[in-house]
Amino acid sequence: LTEIRVSPAIGVFDSGFGGLTVLAALIRKLPTAHYSFIGDTARLPYGSKSRRTIARYAAQSARFLVEEQGADYLVIACNTASALALDDIKEAVSVPVLGVIEPGAAAARAASSSGDVLVIATDATVQSHAYKAACAAHDLRAFEKACPLLVPLVEEGWTNSHVTDEVIRIYLNELATDAAAGGLNADALVLGCTHYPLLRPLIERAVPAGMRVIDSAESTADSAALLIGGRATIDAKRPPSQTKACATLFAQSIQLNCFATDSVEKFERLGSRFLGRPTGPVQLVDLGG
Ligand code: DGL
Q: For the residues of 172-226, what is the DSSP string, one character each?
């Protein structure tokens, strides 16, 4: 099926399937866009790797989405890649690139009255202090904590297990103690990793009453809608370009092609939980070294 593109092509990238939570929010905001999603599942997790490696991997996926899938915009639906490699990705491609960190910090600003927020994320994201910097730009003090056990628990499907409940309580207790010792009076918690929204019910049960839990997926989708909406008038003046074949999925005619660098079967099975609907057939892609 080949067709004329009349709506933007949005490439969405994550190290795995967690970014499908961001894609779900994008689809709600921009339902007529054409989406290509790639999960670099063969090289997951990014959260324990070095900046150099993350930047190299992320740039390869970004080029795949732009050069082979014809994306007009890129959304980096991975906190680790957004925190460590946003500039490298922007250098690798010539289309507008949006990460999840800045929208997350903006959402934290809107939610916090005290001006102090907590952030949980992967090791690499925390070590980069990208959230701390983005929050500081919004006049917020942020206290960050790495929670490396949470991604494997979600990948294992243990999103409703007493073990995961206990792990979350331990992490959040440590975080609350350290933040209080640092003089913070936090009233919001940012989920700084794309896997964590699946643990939201457990996290909400574990935080003190009154603490707001922030998921950057919605604010990222808002920023994307603003960015793309703002450029739509410019794009409308360009002649429409031919798209690649694009699967029309579901009754709602969502245009989505999913790609993974490892087991497509696992992606299809787990991905639907993150996306909140079937992913459709997933294609295997080899990005090289
Ligand atoms: N997608 C990553 C993030 O949002 C989590 C998984 C990983 O470590 O690669 O930080």
A: HHHHHHHHHHTT----EEEEESTTGGGGHHHHHHHSPTT-EEEEHHHHHHHHHHH
Q: 263 by DSSP, 3-state: which? A: coil
d(CA 20, CA 14): 8
CB of 151 sitting under 6 A from ligand 1: yes
Residue with CA at minimum distance from ligand 1 atom 6? 45
Q: Which of 147, 193, 246, 258 is catalytic?
A: 193
Instruction: Dump pLDDT digits (tens) for 19-72.
Output: 999 999 999 999 999 999 999 999 999 999 999 999 999 999 999 999 999 999
61, 287 contact by CB (below 8 A): yes
Write out the H or E segment, with its range, that includes residue 231.
helix 216-236
Residues of the chain with pLDDT under 50: 1-5, 233-251
Q: Specify whether the CB–CB gap between 95 and 34 falls below 8 A.
A: no
128 close to ligand 1 (CB < 6 Angstrom) = no
Residue with tokens 């009076």: 185
Expressed in angstroms and rounded, the spacing between residue 151 Cα and the centre of ligand 1 is 7
Burial of 139 (0-12, 13-18, 19+ CB in 10 A): exposed
Q: Are 7 and 264 a contacting pair, CB within 8 Å?
A: no
Q: Is 246 a catalytic residue?
A: no
Atom number of ligand 1 nearest to Cα 44: 9
Q: Atom 7 in ligand 1: which residue has the minimum CA distance?
A: 45
Atom of ligand 1 nearest to the CA of 18: 1
